[in-house]
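Feature request, filed as a ticket because there's no other form

It would be nice if the structure record came with a short human-readable summary line next to the tokens. Right now we just get the raw output. Example of a typical job, pasted below so the devs can see what we mean:
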Amino acid sequence: MPSITVTNQPVYGRNLIQINWSDEPSVTFARVIRIESDGSEEWVRAHTFADTDGYSIELSAGLAVLYDTEAPMDVPVSYRTESDYSSSTASTSDSVLMSGNDMWLKAPLRPWADQRVTQGTPGVPECVPESGIYFGGMATDSRANRSGIIPINNRRNPISAARTRGGIQSTMLYASRRLVDRDAMVELNAPGDALFFQAPAAYGIIDHYQSIDQYQINRLSNDHRKEWRTHTLPYTEVDRPPGLAEGILGNRWVDLCDPYATFGDAEAAGQTWTNVMLGQATNPPIPGFRLYSDIPIDFATYADIPLGGRTYEDLMEDR
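Raw output as currently delivered:
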């Protein structure tokens, strides 16, 4: 029987899934299905091309590693693995729960570009001097009317033609602290593919996919050395995009280029393909890469600022 192990990684906003089909040598491709608390199911996106659906993954010695970066927050889920040609042999994982206080703006097809969005920022963003992307607000939700009316000759009232109302249209506002954070947001939006927005259940914002319209960045000071920027992202809700996912930050080929010039160098350092798939082959992290651990929050409240011996002027001047 196959086995499946799921590890919750809330700091990265994802679930790590490891499947083992070594007891079934005839199975060379498998898939993983997420099972939500209401019984609904969704295939977990794969990162290797096994077929055109983008959800089956090729096994290596019966093993495979996947990352579910689209799992819902604050909702228990489990996962089932089955072969790509039959569901008669399958295994189901224990339930896991992804929780946290932050929002996420993700690229489902490019999970290495996912951005954690901090909510614990005081009302004036200058009160938090560290690197990060912060939630600035969300405009009014608009749901387009697609119904219509048809005038009829010699009849006072028209006939209505009902069509399903459109999804959400709104605008998201974010603030970035450092230029590197600004660049991360630019890179996230550059390809123009659909993004995925998530928030803790307490905020009442349903997870949804967004097609971003005109993306704008605004400077907050005439002194452009002050690195704060605001980001305006008008969007229309869209369906989940199909396709394969690229790797997570740390397990792409480009992530291995600096520490290892050749495959021989990686092998000599004791790295295995499992280490690469788990994102561990680049530990310690590559200098210059912006990782989630690079986003500390020193001051959660206004009261914490004077306790740290700093003034608002210090924070504005990055001291």
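Something like this underneath would help us a lot:
Confidence is low (pLDDT under 50) at residues 121-128, 315-319.
The first strand starts at residue 3 and ends at 9.
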